[in-house]
Amino acid sequence: MTLKKRARLAAAVAAPLLLTGATLTVTAPSASAAPTGADACTHPGWSNKSSGKGTAKGDSVKVRTGPNKECGVVATVGTARVLFYHCWVKNSAGNRWTHVRIDGLNVDGWVYNKNLDDGGSDHPDNKC
Fold first, then answer.
1. 45-126, superfamily in CATH?
2. For the region Disordered, what residue ranges are annotated (predicted)?
3. 76 Rama class: left (phi>0) / alpha (psi -120 to 50) / beta
């Protein structure tokens, strides 16, 4: 994505948030050396298998490009944002992550289940 497109996306995302007073930060993935082994960022397939929704547990929960803390951050959300659940995976460290879409935005990504108010999507039928 070009810098110009990123700037337009950031402006489009920020405008409604300024009007509602909600906290959301959207960032571009950083360019750094790729981790290897258990710390590598994976991008598993996902589909919308859940009708669940929830909120962040705190004011600065990271929505990431993959289900691992080393993956890039696409947004930071607070408790005021509703997150629609799609499905969940267990990463290489054995932690469960839920793929979410941020309500009112065309932004989706992965959130560590312990950072979700209700523990995220974890029903066996909702596994990605």
1. SH3 Domains (2.30.30.40)
2. 32-65
3. beta
